[in-house]
Amino acid sequence: xxxxxxxxxxxxxxxxxxxxxxxxxxDGGTLQAGVDSDLTCADSVEVAYTTTSTVDGFVVDQxxxxxxxxxxxxxxTCDGQTADVALWxxxxxxxxxxxxxxxxDAATITFSPSIAVDxxxxxxxxxxx
Length: 129
Hints:
By secondary structure, the chain is mainly beta. 12% of the residues lie in helices and 52% in strands. The chain has one helix spanning 2-16, and strands spanning 21-27, 31-32, 35-36, 44-54, 57-68, 82-88, 94-101, 106-116, 122-128. The strands form three sheets. A four-stranded antiparallel β-sheet has the order 1-4-5-8, covered by helices on one side. A three-stranded antiparallel β-sheet has the order 7-6-9. A two-stranded antiparallel ribbon has the order 2-3. The longest helix has 15 residues, at 2-16. The chain is elongated and about 40 Å long.
């Protein structure tokens, strides 16, 4: 039940954004927003969506990841690793994916073409060496 509540909360946050970034935090101990985040290089990851208004509605252009320690401060322990992001839609359909290298406690994944906000239900983040 909690998984569906969190997914619904994220979907609502994405829909409520009008050219601003929405964000959520994922900690290493629980299943959140469809992300099984057993983090080994950071205590949490903040995910921010950058959206743009188009004729057809809002789209996600990029996702910014920030890697945080137990106190919520930026940590460089993930630097040099690859962050993979997969965006999922309703019914378990893939909406889009991308990857970026973590540098200075952050990674930016750009989507081209952009992904319609209406098509996104969950964001999955994987950090790998």
